[in-house]
Amino acid sequence: MVQKRRKQQGLTLVYTGDGKGKTTAAIGLTVRAVGQGFNVKILQFIKSPRRSYGEQITLEKLGVEMEQLGIGFTWTKTPEEHREALRKAWPKAKETVMSGEYDLVVLDELNNALAIDKFPIDDVLPLEEVKDLIKNKPEHVHLVITGRNAKQEIKDIADLVSVVDVEKHYYDRGIPAVKGIEL
Question: Entry's Pfam families (predicted)?
Answer without folding.
Answer: CobA_CobO_BtuR
